[in-house]
Design a protein that fits this description.
By secondary structure, the chain is an alpha/beta fold. The protein has 2 domains: about 180 residues, Quinone Oxidoreductase, Chain A, domain 1; about 130 residues, NAD(P)-binding Rossmann-like Domain (Rossmann fold, 3-Layer(aba) Sandwich). About 30% of the residues lie in helices and about 25% in strands. The chain has 9 helices and 16 strands. Strands 3, 5, 6, 7, 8, 15 and 16 form a 7-stranded mixed beta sheet that branches. β15, α9 and β16 form a beta-alpha-beta unit. The radius of gyration is 20 Å and the shape is globular. The protein starts with a strand and ends with a strand.
């Protein structure tokens, strides 16, 4: 019997239920997938608490890795027995499961160099790092970036990849332990935002100039400081709202702070084109398979413990990547 985590109303982690489910046979464009590992992402909490509204009841989770068990009509990109990974949004919701039906389109075949747990820990985070560093800004060696949540799953990948590109990485963290982890993964400078003024420290580290790009996954509490950390005509990249959404603001502030650019990208728009997705995935898999980028899986949970996993995530007790092991 297959099992899945579902929820019937929005709310805190306590709304998550571990249940027996019937999977059925794949329809047109679908496959039946047996999961080996499933990714835990902060976006999952947004579905659960209603920030991302969806019809209920619903499954949860958008990222997993496993083995294709059956294919439906009109599926030719994967076959039974293929090792695959996937990530997405509404189209892949329901990943917290032992077995499921999923559209074939989001599936990415895994090279032999990438294990299931590594894939579940890095597909969303790795592809996010890929588009942030390879699509958002024309980086040149010597450019500097400010990276919030530098010890998180995306942060650790971005730091390592940025060093491969010759960038100077300034990371922010909340504890000394996270600071050490960030340094081990490529951060040149680490700022503890719990007792340091981030923007002032960035100016000190850049001789008053500021950074070329800020990657801000925190949102409400860091937005103003992030803008104040940018050099003239720098780029503010809002990639998450862990502390809450950014309040409305007058765009004139961007001109006043140095003709800044601001973007709020979403992974879905950078992997919508199959060719672009394949290109980003190939570069990611190459770096990870060769050991140039290490994927840190620092938390492993059973699906039955989904509520505890969400509590840990929201309390910022996690570092690196977290997965459910099936």
């Amino acid at each position: 019997m297959a099992h899945a985590v579902r929820f019937y109303e929005g709310g805190g982690p306590e709304v998550l239920r571990y249940e027996s489910v019937e999977v059925g046979e794949p329809g047109p464009g679908q496959v039946r997938l047996r999961h080996v590992a499933v990714g835990l992402n902060y976006a999952d909490t947004y579905f659960r608490n209603g920030t991302y509204p969806i019809p209920l009841p619903a499954g949860i989770g958008v990222e997993g890795a496993g083995v294709v068990q059956a294919v439906g009509p009109d599926v030719d990109q994967v076959a039974v027995g293929d090792r695959v990974t996937y990530t997405g949004f509404i189209n892949t919701l329901g990943a917290y499961s032992t077995e499921r039906l999923v559209p074939a389109a989001p599936l990415i075949k895994l090279p032999e160099t990438i294990g299931y747990e590594t894939a579940a820990a890095m597909t969303m985070r790795g592809l996010t790092a890929a588009y942030l560093l390879r699509r958002i800004h024309p980086f040149r060696a010597g450019d500097s970036i400010l990276l919030h949540a530098a010890a998180g799953g995306v942060g650790l990948i971005v730091s390592q990849w940025a060093k491969l590109l010759g960038l100077t990485v300034i990371g922010t963290v909340s504890t000394q332990a996270k600071a050490e982890l960030a340094r081990e993964h490529g951060c040149d400078h680490v700022i503890d935002y719990s007792h340091e003024d981030v923007a002032a420290r960035v100016r000190e580290l850049t001789d008053g100039e500021g950074v070329s790009v800020v990657f801000d996954s925190v949102g409400k509490t860091t937005f103003e400081g992030s803008l104040d950390s940018l050099k003239r005509r720098g780029t503010m990249v809002c990639v998450g709202t862990a502390s809450g959404p950014v309040p409305p603001f007058n765009p004139q502030i961007l001109a006043m702070k140095g003709s800044l650019y601001l973007t709020r990208p979403a992974l879905a728009d950078y992997i919508a084109d199959p060719a672009e997705k394949a290109e980003l995935a190939a570069e990611l898999f190459d770096h990870v398979g060769a050991g140039r980028i290490r994927i840190e899986i620092n938390q492993r949970y059973a699906l039955q413990d989904a509520a505890r996993a969400h509590r840990d995530l929201e309390a910022r007790r996690t570092t690196g990547s977290s997965i459910f092991v099936i």
